[in-house]
Amino acid sequence: MRIAVTGLAAAAGLAALLTPAAAQADTARVGTARVGTARVGTAHVGTAHVGTAHVGTAKAGAGVAAWQGSCAKGDFCVWSGKDGTGTRCAWNGDDPDWWGGSVQCRPTFLVSSYWNNGYTGSYSKVKVYEFANYEAYWGTISAGQRGSFWEGQLMRSHKWVN
Fold first, then answer.
1. How far apart are CA 32 and CA 154, in angstroms?
2. Burial of 93 (0-12, 13-18, 19+ CB in 10 A)
3. What is the pLDDT of residue 31?
4. At CA 85, angle to CA 82 and CA 86, rounded to 5?
5. Where do the domains of the chain lie?
6. Low pLDDT (below 50) residues in the chain
7. How many Å apart are CA 76 and CA 48, to the nearest integer?
8. What residue stretch is flagged as signal peptide (predicted)?
9. Reading across the β-sheet that carries 146-154, which strands appear in turn?
10. SS3 for 138?
């Protein structure tokens, strides 16, 4: 199932999917179907993205892949493959440039899955940005949230926030 939504109404309607209160990719379940992540386009209006949203592919219970990645408690981890597979990058602090910071993901690294395995409380959320130096806000991932994207996402910096 692929749902395409466009325009400013899409950004407003799907903004809840990128907030801590909303269920993130691959954690929300409807019956035996797994719901993918929402990602709204690439043009920017303030911090809202405008464009086309892809709300994943629903998979029947028997076809749901098991999560395979590991992420140390307190870390934020991303993978190049779905369900925690492929190349992994992991941090326990902020990083303004994933390609040149303390942890270096290869250039053009596209994120296909993520896990915020941080502690709850202060600085438990991770704000993710498309570009280095915290530019082009992408979304916020709360502690305990993990999931896979329908397609790889460009992310290049992040910081822990309250």
1. 29
2. middle
3. 31
4. 110
5. 4-60+67-161
6. 1-63
7. 23
8. 1-25
9. 88-91, 76-79, 110-116, 146-154
10. strand
Where b means 16+ CB within 10 Å and e means fewer, 133-146 reads ebebbbbbbbbebb
**Segment (H or E) for 8:** helix 8-14
Strand partners, 79: 88, 113
Q: Are 143 and 124 in contact (CB under 8 A)?
A: yes
d(CA 23, CA 64): 18
The two beta strands, 157-161 and 125-131, are: antiparallel
pTM here? Answer: 0.61
- CATH number for the domain whose boundaries are 4-60+67-161: 2.60.20.10
